[in-house]
Design a protein that fits this description.
272 residues, mainly alpha, DNA polymerase, domain 1, hpI Integrase, Chain A, 2 domains, two-stranded antiparallel sheet
C-alpha cells in the first residue's frame, strides 16, 4: 500500500486536526455534535474527534482499498475490521506512532464505530513494551497534588490522595468499603481485603498518613449525601449510587495528569 502525503499530514481548520475529507464532512459534523453530549473532559472530546478525523482522512486516500470486497468500512463490520487493522499497521509502520498512542487512536475508533452501531472493531491493541514502573519526579508530584486540591469533586480529590499516599492499586481502591478506612485525627488505616502481585492477594493494612487521613475525614461526611450512600457500602460511589469502576478512576487520574501536562499519568504511576 502506497502512502501519500495527504495520509500523513493532518488537515487543519477551525478545530485544528479535526478537519475530515469533504465527502465525510457531514458524517463527521454529526459525530462531533454527538461528542458534545458525551460525558468526557473537553480535551478527551477534542482527542477523539481529531483521531477519528485522522482515520477518515486515511480512509479517503490509502484506506480506500482496505477491504478486497469493496464494501464500505463505515457501514459494514467486516470491511470495518479490514480498515481498522490496516490503519493500525499504518500508524505503527508509516506514521511511527508509539504503541500507547496507537491504542489511544483505536479507543477513539471504538467509540466512533459504536456510535455507528457497528460495535468495536475486532482488532488487537498494539503491544506495549515492558518497562520499569514509571515514577513521578518531585516536580511532577507537586504539580499533580496542587491540581488535585483544585478539583471540584471531593470524591476525586480523595481518590488521588489515597492512590498517592497509600500506594493502593486502583482495583483495591474501588473495592474498599467505608468500614475499611477507620480514621481519627491522629490515626488511620486502609484495610485492603484482597490484592494481587507480591502479596498473593492476601489482606493487608496500610497506615494512613496525615494527608490521607485528612482526605478521608473530609470525604466520609460528604459521601453520605451521594445517591446510594445508604444502600451500598462502597467507599467511592458513582453518580448512580453504585460502586465506582476502575475505568472511572483511570479517567479521573488521566484527566488530572493532562491538566498539568503529564499525558501518561495513570493510577499505577501515581502510586509509585
Amino acid at each position: 500500500m502506497t502512502t501519500s502525503a495527504t495520509a500523513t499530514t493532518p488537515g487543519r481548520g477551525r478545530r485544528g486536526g479535526e478537519r475530515p475529507p469533504d465527502r465525510y464532512a457531514e458524517l463527521f459534523a454529526t459525530y462531533r455534535a454527538e461528542l458534545d453530549h458525551v460525558r468526557l473532559a473537553d480535551h478527551s472530546r477534542r482527542a477523539y474527534a481529531s483521531r477519528v478525523a485522522g482515520f477518515l482522512r486515511w480512509l479517503d486516500t490509502d484506506g480506500a482499498a482496505a477491504d478486497p470486497t469493496g464494501a464500505d468500512p463505515l457501514s459494514d463490520a467486516h470491511a470495518r475490521d479490514f480498515a481498522v487493522r490496516d490503519y493500525r499497521a499504518h500508524l505503527l509502520a508509516v506514521a511511527k506512532k508509539r504503541p500507547a498512542t496507537v491504542n489511544a487512536h483505536l479507543t477513539a475508533l471504538d467509540h466512533f464505530f459504536t456510535w455507528r452501531h457497528l460495535v468495536r472493531a475486532a482488532v488487537d491493541r498494539a503491544d506495549l513494551p515492558e518497562q520499569a514502573p514509571r515514577a513521578l519526579t518531585d516536580d511532577e508530584a507537586r504539580r499533580v497534588l496542587r491540581a488535585a486540591e483544585r478539583l471540584p469533586s471531593l470524591r476525586d480529590r480523595t481518590i488521588v490522595e489515597l492512590l498517592y499516599n497509600t500506594g493502593v492499586r486502583s482495583g483495591e481502591l474501588v473495592a474498599l468499603d467505608v468500614d475499611d478506612v477507620p480514621v481519627t485525627a491522629r490515626t488511620g488505616a486502609v484495610h485492603v481485603r484482597t490484592g494481587k502481585g507480591r502479596d498473593g492477594g492476601k489482606p493487608r493494612t496500610i497506615p494512613a498518613n496525615p494527608r490521607a487521613r485528612r482526605a478521608l475525614t473530609d470525604w466520609k461526611p460528604a459521601r453520605a449525601a451521594w445517591p446510594g450512600a445508604d444502600d451500598d457500602p462502597a467507599l467511592f460511589l458513582n453518580r448512580y449510587g453504585r460502586r465506582l469502576s476502575t475505568r472511572t478512576v483511570d479517567q479521573v487520574v488521566a484527566d488530572l495528569g493532562r491538566s498539568v501536562g503529564i499525558d501518561d499519568l495513570t493510577p499505577h504511576v501515581l502510586r509509585h
